What we know:
The protein is α/β, with parallel strands linked by helices. The protein is built from three helices and eight strands, in the order E-E-E-E-E-H-E-H-E-H-E.
Amino acid sequence: MKFFEVTYDDSQPIDGYGPGMFRIAGEAVKGPIRILPTGVTGWGGYEDVEGLVAAAGKVDVMLIGTGADPAFVPASFRRALEEAGIGLEGMATPSACRTFNVLLGEGRRVGAALLPV
Length: 117
């Protein structure tokens, strides 16, 4: 089996997560976060959709980490992203973190909005 080292260019991978926090590119960040090509910022949850919609044209898919367990993403939130041309996938935050890194490593245009576990 061949192993390949993954490089992320200027992108910021998720190094880890824990109760109430994430480690992004070596830096600890508390609370809900959004990771976009423009950087990592706090996220106000499902009521804070404007910052994600602003990423239209820069990301093709937005991964939504719903916390420790899978949950439905509110319909109005989903509709706002889809109307902006951004696909979204809701999943438990641990799965969203792993999927984000895989897609980032493939060079995909991906963003994430994550609720902590």
